[in-house]
């Protein structure tokens, strides 16, 4: 009965949600007009807006008429931006807000147009000039709609309904340890393309080689049987790909390129050229693989000196939205000595990823499949599949990303195993050049021996462990004597460890409940002592770079809505544990 109910809900959800259109990649490399800036908004507390026709943006025409739910320039906010940090009434709000942008546009006859959203958290309905273009679910991945037929010459009205309510069948679901920033949190733009588009492409070194490039390109059928030129001028490469009857072309060739690595983040300007357009992008070439317990970058074993961060600027208590925000977070990571960042717990903005690549930082990217997911609901796999596709579609050409992660801390069960195994298959089907992982947290413990026997270990390329010894569980007797054992011989990354402290709070190192820097510092020392003895350890990511907003952290004296596990405070001040981690990375 429960299953039948779930199936009915699934059908209903699918029927009411129009899918976003196929994705054009590399938006930066295309001809775009930004719709960022001030947008008007209306808070729809009781979800009456659709019924009231807000999307029609009607104006009163007779003295007897009036319009409730009317937009006005007295109420505007910045887009991209979350609503929680921009309107004090909306600090804790999870619900519906309508946004409106009026813009003047002059479309050309021989072009096509798309409206692109970098991310809207969580669910959105998009209307252009009173017509529903479609809906999108998922707060951290981009989507777009073709508007060639609905974009007017002159004034256009774009209206978006955004809903940020947490739901049991959502990803993430009801309960998670970060702030649910609602709104249009990444850029909005109009993309202009020629009639026949170079829609998507992928270029990278062939797996397990450092001197062979493979590339494919997908174009509109109108370019079928014609040529696309791939050029990388500074490497002296110019190749011609012939498109087949369905619009696909592929090529592989030997190439002598300077490889991308954290020490030398070389990039090349790569262009795909058709008769109608040129799409260019800076691309780095590197190979990544696993051999036994080693992670191999460009043929050499590497240790991932990492850190976790949320897409949040703590000093502003807001979603990180700008290039400057991305720079701050990545520079903090660099200062710590990192060559790797685990982007938790969702795809972060594309400019963060591009910047990491320029700075020589390797990345782990994951979809927000975080604890508490209803794996028995068939809709979950469908949604996760869509998120994986949107994430990989957007970021597959960014060489900084070396690991796709499919989940964080999911409880073992048959349903979970089925769904995550299928998801690992989906990822490999989309991109087999990278490694697949998931952060695991259920272990069995006998004294100081901790067994990692999650069945998912067999499915993953890299075993990622989240362990809060000394914080959520007491540290086992005898410093440094803890041993982690895995059922498979694969590389291990310690993807989370740590504990809380409030910056400036001092005391003895023996009491977690005092939230002091000394206790957190000792935890780091203990953890590092333990990890030094783990033979398969190939990376570490302390939890977390900076204190971050979390509504479920309500020790009023020390937390008051903040998760205090940062190595940095919410103002960017360095806690004692920062120096322990930095010294470890400097010694590596
Ligand atoms: C975890 C989660 C992370 C939390 C962290 C914590 O295991 O993966 O999202 O914020 O623990 O602070 O408890």
Description of the structure:
By secondary structure, the chain is an alpha+beta fold. The chain folds into 3 domains: 2-194, Jelly Rolls, CATH 2.60.120; 208-285, Immunoglobulins (Immunoglobulin-like), CATH 2.60.40.10; 290-587, Glycosidases (TIM Barrel, Alpha-Beta Barrel), CATH 3.20.20. The chain is built from 8 helices and 38 strands. The strands form 10 sheets. A 9-stranded parallel β-sheet has the order 23-36-35-33-30-29-28-27-24. Helix 3 crosses helix 4, helix 5 (378-395) packs parallel to helix 6 and helix 7 (517-532) runs parallel beside helix 8 (576-587). The longest helix has 18 residues, at 378-395. The termini are far apart. Mean pLDDT is 94; it is low at 1-21. Bound molecules: (2S,3S,4S,5R)-3,4,5-trihydroxy-6-oxo-oxane-2-carboxylic acid. (2S,3S,4S,5R)-3,4,5-trihydroxy-6-oxo-oxane-2-carboxylic acid binds at residues 177, 345, 408-409, 466, 496, 543, 563, 565.
Count of individual helical segments: 8
- Report low-confidence residues grouped into runs of 5 or more: 1-21
- How many independent structural domains? 3
What is the annotated CATH architecture of the largest domain? Alpha-Beta Barrel
Shape: globular
* Biggest sheet strand line-up: 23-36-35-33-30-29-28-27-24
Helix fraction, binned, reads 10-25%
Q: How many whole angstroms does the radius of gyration measure?
A: 25 Å
Biggest β-sheet: count, sense, barrel?
Answer: 9 strands, parallel
Mean pLDDT: 94
DSSP E strands, number: 38
Bound molecules: (2S,3S,4S,5R)-3,4,5-trihydroxy-6-oxo-oxane-2-carboxylic acid
From the helix content, strand content and strand pairing, which structural class follows? Answer: alpha+beta
| CATH fold-level assignment of the largest domain | TIM Barrel
Strand content: 25-35%
Query: For the record, what CATH class of the largest domain applies?
Result: Alpha Beta
